What we know:
There is one protein chain. This protein has helices at 3-29, 34-45, 55-67, 82-88, 104-116, 130-133, 155-164, 194-208, and strands at 72-76, 96-101, 123-127, 145-148, 171-174, 212-220, 225-232. The chain has 234 residues and is an alpha/beta fold. The termini are far apart. Bound molecules: S-adenosyl-L-homocysteine (SAH), 3,4-dihydroxybenzoic acid (DHB) and magnesium ion. Magnesium ion binds at residues 51, 149, 175-176.
Amino acid sequence: MTNSNNDLASLQQQASLRRSIEADVTRLFAQEDEALRYSLSTAKQEGLPEIQISPVQGKFLQLMSAACNARKILEIGSLAGYSGIWLARSLPSDGHLITLEVNPHHADVVRRAFTRAGIDDRAEVRVGKALDLLPQLESQAPFDLVFIDADKAPYPQYLEWALRLSRPGSIIVADNCIRGGSALRSPEEGTNDDVVRGVYEYNRRIASHPRLVSLVLPMDEDYTDGFAISVVRY
Ligand code: SAH
Ligand code: DHB
Ligand code: MG
């Protein structure tokens, strides 16, 4: 076998190992039940994009929720309610999840999924552009956990709102903060990819923000994407 064949075989072995590790972690720690699978299958039937978080990420959100004793959670970007179900299930019975969604069709699927999951008493979808809805949430603040997963260009603005609507000890999580590494490097001067710009600027701010302790963790898309996690300091 040539060297490059050898290298290729070993890369394939590593990739297959990563997949089997993720499958084992999912089976041990993050199994989906009927309601989560209903959210996924309805989303597919209704032609929504398959861009929800992974089961491991869902369980990670529950871990963060437990760490900050969450009673009030804010989500930006609902899609079909998949992440919303993981989040709402981490709440006590008098807890509350507000999730913001710009697309009314998506919001309709979310409401059905929340009903199916039996969480419609504590999970609420609000329809509109997040930047229009966020100012109306000040009376409900502080949120213990904020999960950012909507359009990427305004991530820096979503961060400002998350900080404004949180308390010391709150946790702010944002999805898609690695993007194959592109979101970790300063975009070339003149780059007009506002997605990469937005997420890079988000990372840059949380990395050095005096009120935050932050890290990005590879945990999705074969460890090429993942969450940025920030804790608001006391
Ligand atoms: N958190 C979901 C995935 C969200 S996908 C999950 O893991 O299950 C991103 C969602 O954000 C889409 O449904 C999209 O319609 C919505 N979105 C995009 N731009 C938005 C905006 N400006 N305000 C609110 N929602 C937005
Ligand atoms: C995409 C993936 C996401 O997780 C998301 O929140 C938005 C877009 C994507 O792959 O296009
Ligand atoms: Mg996402």
